[in-house]
Amino acid sequence: MNTSREPLLSLREATVSFQGFIAVDHLDLDVGKGELRCLIGPNGAGKTTTLDLICGKSRITSGEISFKGVPIHALKEFQIARAGIGRKFQVPSVFRQLTVRENLSIGQSRATGVLHNLLKFGSNDDRSRLEEIAVLVGLRDEMETLAAHLSHGQTQWLEIALILAQDPALILMDEPTAGMTAHETAKTATLFNRLRGKHTLIVVEHDMGFVRDIAETISVMHQGRLLAQGTTDEVANDPRVREAYLGSGGIGHA
Amino acid sequence: MSGKVSFQILTYGVVCLAILLLPIVVDDAFLLNKYSRYLVSGMLAIALSLSWGYAGILNLGQATTFGLGSYCMAMYLKLKTVPIHTGSDGLPDFMVWNNVTELPWIWVPFHSTAFALAAGILVPALFAALLGWFMFGGRVTGVYAAIITLAVMVVVNLIIIDQQSYTGGFNGLTDLAQFELFGFEFDAYSASTYYLVAIGLTISLFLSLAVTRSKTGLILQAVRDQEERVRFFGYDVALYKTFVFAFSAAIAGFAGMFYTIVMEFASPTFLGVPLSLSIVIWVAVGGRQSLLGAMLGALLVTGVQGALSESETFLETWTLIMGALFVLIVLFLPKGLAGAFSALIDRLAPASRAPISQAVENSPKAEAHIGGAA
Questions:
Q1: Which of A175, B46, B233, B295 is the most buried (most CB within 10 A)?
Q2: What's the domain count of chain A?
Q3: Binding-site residues on chain B for chain A (CB distance < 8 A)
Q4: Looking at the partner chain, which of B211, B226, B369 has a beta carbon nearest the beta carbon of A95?
Q5: How far is CA A55 from CA A17, A96, A224, B55, B365, in A?
C-alpha cells in the first residue's frame, strides 16, 4: 500500500448483499491522490460491483465509503458525480442519437443546473477544450458524426472522452479496452499513463498485458474480498492469487 | 452546424409567416374559426413533441393541462358576463341553479385579467411539476409513467364533472363573454382571433425551439437515450424531466386558453381520453423528434379529419380512414413525415453523408461483437 500519499478514496468494511448473496465482503481499500490503481480478479470477484458502490449505482449494506475525507455512500448518484467521481461503464454507454460533439458537450458538466443550461447554446461550450479531447482520443474528424455510427473501438474512446470532458478528480474505468484491437489497447495505455498524477484512476481490467503497461499498484479481489495488493511482480508471484486464478480448489473452498 | 441552425430558424419562420398571413386569402369567418382550432391542435402537438420526442416521456394525459388552461380562461370570461348571464347576486348562472349562494373562493381571483392569464399557464405548469416530481423522483419511467399520466387525467376529469356547483359539471362553462385585451374585442369568428392564436402558436414554437437548442435541450435528449449515463455526469435527471414536463404543460395550458376563446366554452371533454390520444397520433404522424413536424402533423391530421367528416361520402368511414393512415405511418415512417422529409434531403445531398449510411449497416454487427466478447 502506498502510504506516502493522502488517501483520496477509502472504503472501510464495505459490504453489499444482494438478497443474501454477498458480492462485496468487508472490503478495505485506499487509493491515494494521483494514483493509478488496477483492480483485477477472476470473474465474479466483485470488481464491477465495487465500482458501482463507489459511484452510487449500488448501495452498500454496511461499512463506509469516503472521498476526500467525506462519506459519500449516502449521496445520490448525481451528487457523487458532482463531488468529482466519473465512471466509464463496461458496456460502452454513450448517447447514440447525438453527434460526437453533442456527446462531449454533455460530458462537460461543470454547470449542472436546468435554468443555467437553458441559457447556454452550442457556442458557449469550452470548444477548444472539446477539440483538444477529440484530438486526444482520435475522434477529431468525427465531431459531427452520430455516435450510433461509430465503430466499437471508437465508441469506447468516445466514452473515455466524455469522462475527460467531465474532468473528475477520480475516474473509475470498467474494462476500458474490452473489444479493442491491440493497437487501440496500446493507445489507451499511453493515454492512461498521461492521465496519471493529474487524475486518480481505478481501472478494472482483464487484459494482463494492458495492466502490466499501466499499473503501479494492483489490488486483487476474490469472492468479494481483497486477496492481495502490490506491484505486478509481487501479485503475480503470490500463491493465493495463483490459486484463485487457476481456480483448481477455488470453488470447492467456497 | 450554425448554418444548419439558421436554416432551421428560417424554415420555422417561413411556416409561421405563412400561417399568420392566411387571413389575406381566406375571408370566411367560419373557416377562420375552424383554422384557429387547428392551430390550437398544433400548439398541443408542440407540447407533446417536447416531452415525448425530446425527453422520451410519453404523456398520455396531455389534455389534462390543456383542460386546466381552458377552464382558467373560461372562469375569467364567465365572470366577465356579470350581470347578464348571472343570478341576482352576481353569480354565474349555473351556480344559481345549483343553489350556490356565494362565489367560491377559487373563483374570486378570476375577476382579474392578469391573474387569469397567468393562471392559465402557471396552474397547468405547477400541476405537471408536482406530478412530475413524484413520478421522476421515484424513477417511474416508460410505460408506467404513460399510464400514470392517463390515470391522473381520468381522475381530474371526474372531479370536474362531479363538482358541478363549481365547474358546471358535464355541461362545462358556457355562455362566456368575448375575450378583450387592451380594449380590443376578439370575436371567435373573426380574423382577429385567428391572428391571436397564430401569434400564440408562433411564440410557443420559437420558445420550444430555444429550449431544444439549449444545452438543457441537449441534456434532455441524452436522458431519452441513456438516462443512467446522464446521472453519472452530475445532472439531476429528475429535475430535468420535471422541468420539460412542466414546460410542456405550460404550452398546453396556453393552448387551452386559446381554445376557450375560439370555441366560446370549456367542457370536460377537453380533458378527455379521445383528445389526449389524438395528440399522440398527430405527433406520431408529423414526427415526434421535430417540433415543426409535430405541429404540421397536427394541422394535417385535424385538417383531413375536418374535411372527411364534413364530406357526404366519408361521413360513415372517416374514422376508419384516419386509423388506417395512422397504422401505415407508424409501420412505414417510424420517425413520421418530418423523418421522411429529412431522409429525402439527405438523399438529395449525399456528398458528405455516404460513409454514414455504410456505418449504420455495420453497427449491428459491432454490437453483436460486443455481446460475444462479454
A1: B295
A2: 1
A3: 1-2, 5, 211, 213-216, 218-219, 221-222, 224-226, 228-237, 239-240, 243, 356, 359-360, 362-363, 366-367, 369-370, 373-374
A4: B226
A5: 17, 23, 17, 24, 31
User: B25-57, pLDDT tens digit by residue?
Assistant: 888 889 999 999 999 999 999 999 999 999 999
As a whole number of angstroms, the distance between CA B112 and CA B157 comes to: 26
Closest residue to A106, CB basis, from B2, B222, B373: B222
Sign of the C-alpha dihedral computed for residues B155, B117, B216 and B134 taken in this order: negative
Please report whether residue A33 resides in a domain: no
Using an 8 Å CB-CB cutoff, list chain B residues near A179. 369-370, 373
pLDDT of res. A123? 60
Q: B291 or A180: which carries more pLDDT confidence? A: B291
Cβ–Cβ below 8 Å for B214 and A121: yes
On the question of pLDDT at B153 being above 70, the answer is yes
Residue spans of the domains in chain B: they are 2-278
* H and E: helices and strands count for chain B: 16, 2
**pLDDT > 50? residue B373:** no
How close, in Å, is residue A4 to chain B by CA atoms?
30
Q: For residue B83, is the peptide bond before it cis, meaning its omega torsion is within 30 degrees of 0?
A: yes
A135, part of any domain: yes
Taking only the tens place, the pLDDT of each residue in B65-89 is 999 999 999 999 998 887 665 556 6
Percent of chain B at pLDDT > 70 equals 91
Q: Looking at the domain assignment, is residue A119 inside a domain?
A: yes
Of B2, B232, B360, which is closest to A149 when you measure between CB atoms?
Answer: B360
In 3D space, the residue among A230, A201, A220 whose CA is nearest the CA of residue A9 turns out to be A201
In chain B, the residue whose alpha carbon lies closest to the alpha carbon of A155 is B366
pLDDT at B361: 39
Average pLDDT over residues A173-179: 89
Chain A nearest-CA distance from B231, in A, is 5
Pick the residue of A54, A79, A114 with the most B CBs within 10 A to test the interface with B by mutation: A114
Instruction: Return the residue of A nearest to B211 by Cα.
Output: A118
B204, B46 in Cβ contact below 8 A?
A: yes
Look at residue A124 and tell me whether its pLDDT is greater than 70.
no
Cα–Cα distance between A120 and B228 in angstroms, integer?
23
User: Taking CB atoms and an 8 Å limit, are B370 and A178 in contact across chains?
Assistant: yes
Contact flag B232-A77 (C-beta cutoff 8 Å): yes
- DSSP β-ladder status, A62-67 and A70-71: antiparallel
Q: Taking a C-beta distance cutoff of 8 angstroms, is the pair B170, B268 a contact?
A: yes
State which residues form the domain around A155.
Answer: 97-167
Q: Give the number of beta-carbon pairs within 8 Å between A and B.
A: 122
Q: How confident is the model at residue B182 (pLDDT cuts 50, 70, 90)?
A: confident
Backbone φ and ψ of A225, nearest 5°:
-120, 160
ipTM of the complex: 0.90
**How far, in Å, CA of A100 to CA of B147, rounded?**
34
CA distance B327 to B321: 10
Tell me the average pLDDT of chain A.
Answer: 88
What band does A125 get if pLDDT is binned at 50, 70 and 90? Answer: low
